[in-house]
Amino acid sequence: MGENKGRKVGEDPGTEKERKKGGSKLLPWIIIIVSAVVLVFALLQIFDIGGENIASCQGYETLRKVATGETEATQGGAASNAVDPRSRKIDFDALRAVNEDIIGWIYIPNTDIDYPVTIGEDNDYYISHSADRKENRAGAIFLDYQNEPDFSDANTVIYGHRMNDGSMFASLHKFEDEAFFRENRYVYLYLPGGTVNVYDIFAANVVGETDEAYTRSFADDDAFLDYLTKMKNRSAAAFNREFTAQDRIITLSTCVQYEDENRYIVQAVLER
């Protein structure tokens, strides 16, 4: 009687065992189905991201052709290093016909940084929209909206994503290599009217997302000079650079992989 305890009257003693056995066979199938669903979702996400990356690259290549009149794509999306960057011409009338928020063009030799620069009404829009105003996770290169659009502030902050495919501001991380840093010291910023601002890179470093490096204006000349000296001294590579209170700098900022709270910045001072 003890053997039949808990079993219905008339039930075959083997029925319960078969039911348990059937349940054990079903579990692996459930795991397989769930895994398949997760895999399909992940693949769709990858394809979606890959599609956006392709669209971003194609969109910016089109803008380069619009800006320069070039008919052939340039390798890596960057201008040829054989051409004197100071003599390069950017057609801002053509660019502003695409987007009036385009206020400049930034180029750093020996990197893939060769992009229009935008400014929005806030610092959110161009995180998820490209320079042609299309929604895209690669975003655009953009000024802090609190900066003057003519780059006249003591410190103009320029943001860009660190994309895994090496696009946007990912190339800034090349300056982590001191040898590269010392051999590649200039940023070229093209402005409407044919002006070419040439900036000499003097600092590169990892900072917190709210670091004082993002200070845009200063109480007085001494405060600005103290700031410049501090930025130079804490850089991974040091240079014997003298500053004046009349200097104007740019701070290029991008993300650090796996460190959401940090940013990587490259700072450069306008040549006198």
Features:
single chain, 272 residues, alpha+beta, eight-stranded mixed beta barrel, 4 helices
Q: Tally of extended strands?
A: 8
Order of helices and strands: HHEEEEHEEHEE
Which consecutive residue ranges, at least 5 long each, have pLDDT under 50?
A: 1-11, 46-50
Count of helix runs = 4
Secondary structure: helix percent: 25-40%
Walk me through this protein's architecture.
This protein is of the alpha+beta class and 272 residues long. The chain has 4 helices and 8 strands, in the order ααββββαββαββ. The protein has helices at 15-68, 92-98, 178-183, 221-233; strands at 102-107, 114-118, 141-143, 155-159, 186-190, 196-208, 249-256, 259-270. Strands 1-2-3-4-7-8-6-5 form an 8-stranded mixed β-barrel. The longest helix is centred in the N-terminal third of the chain and has 54 residues, at 15-68. The radius of gyration is 28 Å and the shape is globular.
List the helices and strands and how they pair.
Blueprint: H1 15-68, H2 92-98, E1 102-107, E2 114-118, E3 141-143, E4 155-159, H3 178-183, E5 186-190, E6 196-208, H4 221-233, E7 249-256, E8 259-270
